[in-house]
Amino acid sequence: MVELFTHRIVETGRLPLFSFFAAFIVMFVLTRVNVRLIRSDVRWWFKNVKAGDLHIHHVVFGVVLMLVGGVASLAVPDTYSGFHVVVAIVFGMGSALVLDEFALILHLSDVYWTEKGRASVDAVFVAIAVTGLLLLGIRPLGFEGIRPDPGGEENHTVLVAIYLLSLIANLALAVVTLLKGKIWTGLLGLFVPLILIIGAVRLARPGSPWARWRYVPGSRKARRAQWHEERFRRPLIKGKIWVQEFIAGRHDLDLRHRRKAVPEVRGVRSQTPDQVRQTHDGT
């Protein structure tokens, strides 16, 4: 195991990337454990960080850590490999804190414990998948750089032309795949071009831009797309939601607890906190 790590990670110069990857995962797990304990109002655990009445979200600390790690990595010469490992860890920790509240940044609203907050987990999954593929040595769109060809300038020009045509073709396939509503297929296809071909050829998801533009409502393609969505895609989505809730917690759990704690008012069995407030205010 040590020899494999040395050969695949250290000798290939991927140790800073591995450090970022490990720090990212560890910090994300610790952050989720922390926020779930805070949400459960455990007496022996920490509380939310506040400055007066202002709740300071952990994305703020993440931005600071990312800035420190990023600037430090640019300021220190490449010969200091050990230091680059340290700043990669700092940058990974900050990235985990930021992406854990990606939904808050996206919606510019505190949606952490709502259904929209699942977007944060999706963003973390994407970051882990992309970083993991890079650690395996897989480059997006086969990018490895173009080295001078000993066969001469003419051969080098041909190789450059072939590479650019391949790059344009793969990008076009990626755009088509994303327009068909296949986000994960498009992202993974950037590393494995064969997946892009499959994603671009197959039917689009219902409601995707491609389906709205090219599938006439009630047509054979529209019906087939809906059938594929219900037959294959829905079970996968349910599985993904289960994983998200296992990691991030149920987004509606807190609301249920609040409803159970609300007393009955004027014979009304189940009222939301807003309804109870309105009743007491006489509105």
From TrEMBL:
<feature type="transmembrane region" description="Helical">
    <location>
        <begin position="82"/>
        <end position="107"/>
    </location>
</feature>
<keyword id="KW-0812">Transmembrane</keyword>
<feature type="transmembrane region" description="Helical">
    <location>
        <begin position="56"/>
        <end position="76"/>
    </location>
</feature>
<keyword id="KW-0472">Membrane</keyword>
<feature type="transmembrane region" description="Helical">
    <location>
        <begin position="15"/>
        <end position="35"/>
    </location>
</feature>
<feature type="transmembrane region" description="Helical">
    <location>
        <begin position="186"/>
        <end position="204"/>
    </location>
</feature>
<feature type="transmembrane region" description="Helical">
    <location>
        <begin position="119"/>
        <end position="138"/>
    </location>
</feature>
<feature type="region of interest" description="Disordered">
    <location>
        <begin position="264"/>
        <end position="283"/>
    </location>
</feature>
<keyword id="KW-1133">Transmembrane helix</keyword>
<protein>
    <recommendedName>
        <fullName>Integral membrane protein</fullName>
    </recommendedName>
</protein>
<feature type="transmembrane region" description="Helical">
    <location>
        <begin position="158"/>
        <end position="179"/>
    </location>
</feature>
